[in-house]
Design a protein that fits this description.
alpha/beta; eight-stranded parallel barrel; 17 helices; 8 strands; oxidoreductase; NADP
């Protein structure tokens, strides 16, 4: 796998509308779904859970689960839907995954993770990857991460993305688990030095493309999470900074037009404008008019009958001269 920037899977955030929006900002970054539980993929409403727009490629499906046979079946279904990668969640610390004994709980059972990876690899032709923490609870991250990595790569995993902090399954909420355990980037760098021929990506607390670039001196990939969601404008620089695209001022008017057209199609199918605009409120963070842009999207977009014109009205409130000056 080549060096890459990815947008992290984030529960309740990286749905298909968010991914369509992010794809307007970067054509090359790898996008991820929210985690979808294998049982839901097998037995649930698949189009609602797995459907996506072709423009989202490259896009990966993240699965949650701990039954190798079910994960293999869910992976086959995901491949048939057209996903470019299947990723196994070994890092989410929520109560939901603890009750199901998957997510970050799997850090304690690397053999089971390896069996799951092997089963998925045997069932699909697309890459199978893993996203994990450096450890959980009282585990020592040195042997814990090495053991997990050795196990999944021996099973055929194509990449390992590491959220560079522990998860505490007892005593911390999922939100606290994203902030309180200290980040340990050097631990991930040591893993890459130890496994130089394997793809190792890093995640956790990366706030800018500059920080991502710094990490890429040590590892193969950098994954943006909350910074990508809350300040999505930073994504507009990815293709030029990391994939060789020509540097140019970003065409925000074209983005708004694309999102308005997408919203019109969504509304025609019975959806609401707010399903889409909730992901866009941070787009112009730091620019004059950004506050008014947020206000319009947060209020008018959720009124009955709201249509794509709300996006255009919000965009009209933004002064892009500062962004243009910075790009010049």
């Amino acid at each position: 796998m080549k060096t890459m920037i990815a947008i992290a899977p984030m529960m309740d955030w990286t749905d298909r509308h968010c991914r369509f929006f992010h794809r307007q900002l970067t054509r090359r970054a790898l996008l991820y779904t929210e985690m979808v539980v294998a049982d839901a993929v097998i037995h649930g409403a698949r189009e609602r859970l797995l459907g996506f727009d072709d423009v989202e490629h490259p896009v990966a499906l993240q699965l949650g689960g701990s039954d190798p046979a079910k994960l293999a079946e869910a992976a086959r279904i995901g491949e048939a839907f057209g996903y470019d990668e299947i990723n196994l969640n070994v890092g989410c610390p929520s109560d939901r995954v603890q009750s199901g004994t998957f997510g970050a709980c799997l850090m304690k059972t690397p053999k089971l993770v390896a069996e799951s990876v092997a089963a998925m690899k045997a069932s699909v032709k697309i890459p199978v990857t893993v996203k994990c923490r450096i450890g959980v609870d009282d585990q020592d991250p040195e042997p814990a991460l090495d053991t997990l990595a050795d196990s999944v790569f021996a099973a055929g995993a194509d990449a390992l993305w590491v959220h560079a902090r522990k998860a505490w399954l007892e005593g911390l909420s999922p939100k606290e688990n994203r902030d309180i355990p200290p980040l340990d980037y050097p631990r991930v760098y040591r893993l890459k030095a130890r496994r130089p021929n394997e793809f190792i990506g890093i995640n956790g607390g990366i706030q800018s493309l500059g920080e991502a670039s710094t990490h890429l001196r040590h590892v193969d990939g950098a994954m943006l999470g909350r910074a990508a969601y809350h300040t999505p404008g930073i994504l507009a620089g990815i293709d030029a900074a990391f994939y060789g695209a020509p540097a140019a001022a970003f065409d925000y008017a074209a983005l708004i037009d694309a999102m308005a057209g997408y919203a019109a199609r969504h509304i025609e199918r019975g959806g609401r404008l707010g399903h889409i605009t909730r992901h866009m409120v941070g787009l112009f963070h730091g620019l004059p008019g950004a506050r008014r842009f947020r206000q319009i999207l947060s209020t008018d977009a959720n009124k009955p009958g709201a249509g794509p014109g709300v996006m255009k009205a919000a965009f009209a409130a933004v002064d892009l001269s500062k962004a243009a000056a910075e790009a010049a």
